Amino acid sequence: MKAWQLASLCILIIAARMVNSNLEGDILIAQRSAWNDPHNVLQTWDPTLVNPCTWLHVTCNNENSVIRLDLGNASLSGPLSPRLGGLANLQYLELYANFITGAIPTELGNLTKLVSLDLYLNRLTGSIPSSLGNIQSLVFLRLHSNNLNGGIPPTLGNLIKLAILDFSSNALSGSIPSSLGNIESLVNLRLNGNNLSGVIPEQVLDLIVTGNLTEINVSDNYMNGTTRNSGKRVTTIIQDA
Ligand SMILES: *[C@@H]1O[C@H](CO)[C@@H](O)[C@H](O)[C@H]1NC(C)=O
Ligand SMILES: *[C@@H]1O[C@H](CO)[C@@H](O)[C@H](O)[C@H]1NC(C)=O
Ligand SMILES: *[C@@H]1O[C@H](CO)[C@@H](O)[C@H](O)[C@H]1NC(C)=O
Ligand SMILES: *[C@@H]1O[C@H](CO)[C@@H](O)[C@H](O)[C@H]1NC(C)=O
Ligand SMILES: *[C@@H]1O[C@H](CO)[C@@H](O)[C@H](O)[C@H]1NC(C)=O
Ligand SMILES: *[C@@H]1O[C@H](CO)[C@@H](O)[C@H](O)[C@H]1NC(C)=O
């Protein structure tokens, strides 16, 4: 390869990188315009910069791709943009304790590097997308204290790294999928304060012995039967109301 060919190849690669970074910036700008931001926490989000990596509340890796969005407790209101699903390297989506409305976009299931999805204490409605079962890297899935309805997707049984699943204080109905019994890494299962029925599946109870499960809270639902376990590792199982 001649020197000029190499040089133009390098320029092409650099240009591609910049386009890529701008693409993530564009996604965040689309999200910003969907939100109401009364405390101007997003005022450093300048779309004219080559990438979003210097914006406050945004963290990038050394390839200028976004890996964290830290906007918990920021008084933001409005919906989640489906375009957030395009932040391919995102590991932490921290949007808890805001006034976010609307549904959880199905597209968030495309965030296959995500470790933590924290959308708790918002005003989210609609059902939990089954696509979240694609995020095999998830360790923390906290959607509690919203107005989510519908069932718990059985696909969540694919989340084999999950430690905390907290869906408490919503309006979820139906029964607890037995597939959750696949999650040997699960430590806390908080489903209290919903509209769930049925019994805790055998496969889930088995995790107390075979897995890492130390807390199951299903109190304050429409579940039948009573299961109490006073084993050392288990703090609470309350299946009756
Ligand atoms: C939100 O911020 C306020 C004031 O800074 C603080 O008192 C409160 O504990 C925070 N809430 C959460 C859920 O982090
Ligand atoms: C993202 O997810 C949606 C819905 O789950 C899907 O239709 C779409 O093809 C995905 N996009 C990419 C780029 O993977
Ligand atoms: C259970 O917890 C231990 C100690 O935290 C950890 O080393 C182990 O990997 C966990 N098991 C699973 C299946 O995640
Ligand atoms: C379980 O949930 C109930 C009701 O939602 C709550 O009052 C209780 O404190 C929870 N138990 C534990 C151990 O967190
Ligand atoms: C919760 O369940 C009860 C009893 O099955 C039902 O009457 C009620 O409509 C349900 N509420 C929601 C929000 O699903
Ligand atoms: C649970 O309750 C429903 C309705 O109250 C009843 O039909 C069902 O037989 C009960 N199941 C068990 C296992 O007790």
From TrEMBL:
Keywords: Leucine-rich repeat, Repeat, Signal. It comes from the Eukaryota. Residues 81-205 form the Disease resistance R13L4/SHOC-2-like LRR domain. Pfam families: LRR_14, LRRNT_2. The keyword Manganese does not apply. Residues 1-21 form the signal peptide. The keyword Membrane does not apply. Residues 22-61 form the Leucine-rich repeat-containing N-terminal plant-type domain. PANTHER family: SOMATIC EMBRYOGENESIS RECEPTOR KINASE 1. This is Leucine-rich repeat-containing N-terminal plant-type domain-containing protein. It comes from Zingiber officinale. The lineage of its organism: Eukaryota, Viridiplantae, Streptophyta, Embryophyta, Tracheophyta.
